[in-house]
Specification:
mainly beta, Jelly Rolls, seven-stranded mixed β-sheet, 23 strands, about 45% strand
Length: about 270
């Protein structure tokens, strides 16, 4: 298992950063390595983000990522796979999710077919209470239609971990799928002053890119994101993206509030 660390930053820093510095401080790359768990610990709400990619063998979450005081959200973006939690197997098809509650001792990942291996996206947050481990098939996730073709942001938001579907200490987790012809993942952009968020972009062709916009509303910057990369959004930063083609992304949030609708929309005429 490999773990890296990202430190929290002040919004004043962004005004003076190069593209390379922005990528170093906010972009998570190389999230899937065969037969390894790759995780990045951010000091933004102490969110962890990464991937488990079992190809030829089973892999474990690892002793260095204890769930004694953490909870874990998982979404499979690859072939069919299995997640064993304390001796119980959960089968995840593509786009199925799993919530693993605080206190789990063993988490093991495996693929059903090594020629079509599972790819498990992982989001992990601190927890103050234990809730049951729950399998969340994509058809049980809460869908919400948003946007329109006219504004190029026709999309469906699937909420996996939220108080209605699956109780958690602070983790919120979901998947957004854009329709063909749509490129904007949210419009207008917004802030979460009481939560931080990570956007994990996937379902993209190798040559496609997403231009992820961040920073304070009057000091916006952008990061060019490739397939299966993630961007960390502190509470002071907007987050929205526009792609060269349609794509999907998984969003994971942590903070003091679990109300999904608690956000501050940013008027377009204030963006700079």
């Amino acid at each position: 298992m490999t773990q890296s660390v990202m430190h929290a930053t002040h919004p004043e820093m962004v005004k003076h950063l190069s593209s390379a510095d922005l990528r170093r401080l906010y972009l998570i790359e190389n999230m899937f390595q065969p037969d390894r768990v790759q995780l990045t610990l951010t000091h933004v709400e102490r969110l962890m983000s990464g991937g488990a990619f079992p190809v030829n063998e089973k892999i474990t979450l690892g002793d260095s990522v204890s769930l004694a005081r953490r909870e874990l959200g998982i979404v499979n973006i690859g072939g069919k796979g299995l997640v064993r939690v304390d001796g119980r197997d959960y089968e995840l098809r593509q786009r199925d999710g799993l919530y693993v509650g605080m206190g789990a001792n063993e988490v093991v990942f495996s693929s059903v077919d090594k020629n079509n291996p599972a790819k498990f996206y992982l989001a992990c947050t601190p927890a103050h209470a234990r809730f049951d481990t729950i399998l969340i098939p994509v058809e049980n996730a809460m869908p919400k239609k948003m946007g329109s073709k006219e504004t190029c942001n026709d999309r469906t938001i699937y909420q996996y971990v939220n108080p209605t579907i699956c109780k958690s200490s602070q983790l919120l987790l979901g998947l957004t799928i854009l329709e063909s012809g749509s490129i904007w993942n949210t419009m207008p952009c917004h802030l979460h002053s009481r939560r931080s968020e990570i956007y994990f972009y996937f379902d993209m062709q190798p040559s496609d890119r997403v231009f992820h916009f961040m920073g304070e509303p009057a000091e916006t910057r952008h990061i060019v994101v490739a397939n299966e990369q993630a961007v960390v959004a502190p509470p002071w930063s907007i987050h929205m993206g526009a792609g060269t083609s349609r794509y999907s992304f998984i969003w994971a949030m942590a903070g003091e509030n679990q109300d999904y609708a608690d956000m501050q929309a940013v008027p377009m005429d204030t963006l700079r």
